[in-house]
């Protein structure tokens, strides 16, 4: 029996309401060339009929139907999200929607003997949920399959620096033995975690603080964040997760970068993974004796003192301690940063980005930031586009790097299986993005701020919020509880 565990199917769902970033730049006075190059091309916006649970259920239904799954074989249904609107339950809400719709469609419900965990750790929740499902499949899930859904609403206050990096959507992943897309060897996966305080947070107290999102008259989840500090945390934790991966595998870094077929990361915006990989490769050069000479040469080309850059690369100071001592906007590695900037503009790294980081990137630029679904969405786009363009992936290694603010990271080398094209053909990435409703400025601002707006943007097939309960009496309470409908 084949005991390999991995992913055998992928499906994505995004709301139909879309903001074109070129139009957004015209509304806000931002430079379109810069925004489109650094951030992406568009992002999706949930209407009042969309929630994290309806998006998750719609993605899972797409997965079940596109891969003709038997719901009775599903023994583990996990939801990774940081956009929950219920602090008691999560994935079982999605199961409830699916059960009713599947019965209505004549397929039968998901097994009653099914685990329904929800996993939260900022943008890493989906990857942690996937790791948990892989462990379940390896230990006590024999004969069953798991569905993992990464779903989120990424939203920022209008006028903030995060506004163009919004988005909403869900990715559903089929976890099984003898997977049809790629295998996951957990013994080779690198992990890292460190508390970073004021990186990116969603404390309850902000909702009771004067001045917090005063113009937004709806349930909202705008984060408390510090952009430059968050970027530093992202890069640092990605490097730490890669350090652990290389320590576990014993692989030579230089050889691995030459041989890996594609590198995909959590992408809060398009340029962030590129920046992180340039930093990770340069710091790796500083840490590998075989690459030390090349690192010194790189520093000299950039006009940087190699000894100072090496000291910064080896520094073990806690970033949160530094932030409290020196402030969140202090550049902690100025010399190393100059070396990285020079490396990023060099021919080798430009070729690396073009050859190793382009697969599926164009499709991902249409989605915006999906928080915990961002990396899974890039994987969806990568496999869909590889199938469409005839890219050979069988027996090739892809590197998937996830990150969650606060912070933690995972670095997974996954192996594409023979015959992956059959499963990739069922993804229907383009279909999931079709029928978008482009928003004008008035409609976008009304949706964002919670004002009444007439918009027809229900999914063509999927789940919607029909109403929200408001009873708060001793004989029957449902205040705040969503009731769902199914669009056939």
Description:
By secondary structure, this protein is of the alpha+beta class. The chain is built from 18 helices and 19 strands. Strands 1, 4, 5, 6, 7, 8, 9, 12, 13 and 14 form a ten-stranded mixed beta sheet that branches. It has a three-stranded mixed beta sheet with strand order 3-2-15. Strands 10-11 form a two-stranded antiparallel sheet. β4 (74-80), α4 (91-104) and β5 (118-119) form a beta-alpha-beta unit. It is globular, with a radius of gyration of 22 Å.
Provide a concise account of the structure shown.
The protein has helices at 21-28, 32-38, 52-66, 91-104, 125-139, 227-249, 253-259, 271-287, 292-301, 306-314, 319-326, 334-344, 347-356, 361-364, 374-389, 420-424, 429-433, 441-449; strands spanning 5-13, 17-20, 42-44, 74-80, 118-119, 145-154, 167-177, 182-184, 190-193, 200-201, 224-225, 262-265, 397-404, 408-416, 437-438, 462-468, 472-473, 476-477, 482-487. By secondary structure, the protein is of the alpha+beta class. It has one domain (5-487): Thiolase/Chalcone synthase (Peroxisomal Thiolase, Chain A, domain 1).
């Amino acid at each position: 029996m084949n005991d390999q565990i991995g992913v055998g199917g992928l499906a994505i769902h995004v709301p139909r309401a879309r903001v074109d970033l070129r139009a957004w730049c015209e509304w806000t006075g931002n430079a379109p060339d810069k925004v489109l190059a650094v951030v992406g091309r568009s992002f999706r916006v949930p209407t009042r009929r969309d929630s994290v649970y309806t998006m998750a259920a719609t993605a899972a239904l797409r997965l079940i139907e596109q891969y003709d799954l038997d719901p009775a074989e599903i023994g583990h249904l996990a939801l990774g999200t940081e956009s929950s609107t219920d602090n008691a339950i999560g994935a079982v809400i999605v199961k409830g929607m699916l059960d009713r719709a599947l019965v209505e469609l004549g397929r039968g419900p998901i097994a009653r003997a099914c685990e329904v965990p929800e996993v939260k750790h900022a943008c890493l929740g989906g990857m942690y949920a996937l790791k948990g499902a892989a462990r379940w499949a390896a230990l006590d899930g024999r004969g069953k399959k798991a569905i993992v859904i990464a779903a989120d609403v990424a939203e920022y206050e209008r006028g903030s620096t995060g506004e163009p990096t919004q988005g909403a959507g869900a990715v559903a992943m089929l976890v099984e033995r003898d997977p049809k897309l790629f295998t996951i060897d957990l013994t080779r996966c690198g992990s890292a975690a460190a508390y970073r305080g004021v990186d990116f947070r969603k404390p309850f107290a902000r909702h009771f603080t004067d001045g917090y999102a005063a113009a937004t008259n709806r349930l909202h989840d705008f984060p408390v964040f510090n952009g430059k500090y968050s970027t530093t945390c992202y890069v640092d934790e990605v490097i730490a997760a890669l350090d652990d991966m290389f320590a576990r595998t014993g692989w030579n870094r230089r050889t691995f970068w030459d041989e890996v077929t594609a590198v995909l990361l959590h992408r809060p915006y398009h340029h962030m993974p590129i920046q992180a990989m340039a930093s990770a490769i340069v710091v790796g050069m500083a840490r590998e004796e075989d690459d030390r000479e090349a690192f010194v040469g790189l520093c000299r080309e950039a006009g940087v003192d190699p000894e100072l850059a090496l000291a910064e690369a080896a520094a073990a100071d806690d970033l949160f301690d530094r932030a409290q001592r020196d402030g969140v906007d202090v550049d902690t590695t100025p010399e190393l940063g100059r070396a990285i900037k020079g490396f990023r503009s060099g021919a080798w790294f430009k070729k690396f980005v073009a050859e190793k980081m382009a697969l599926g990137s164009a499709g991902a630029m249409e989605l915006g930031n999906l928080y915990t679904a961002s990396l899974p969405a890039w994987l969806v786009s990568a496999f869909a586009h590889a199938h469409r363009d005839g890219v050979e992936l069988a027996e090739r290694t892809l590197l998937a790097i996830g990150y969650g603010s606060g912070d933690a990271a995972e670095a997974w080398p996954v192996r594409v299986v023979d015959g992956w094209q059959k499963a990739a053909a069922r993804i229907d990435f383009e279909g999931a993005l079709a029928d978008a409703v482009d928003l004008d400025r008035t409609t976008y601002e009304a949706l964002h701020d919670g004002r009444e707006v007439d918009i027809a943007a229900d999914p063509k097939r999927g789940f919607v919020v029909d109403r929200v309960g408001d009873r708060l009496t001793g004989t029957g309470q449902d205040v705040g509880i969503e009731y769902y409908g199914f669009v056939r």
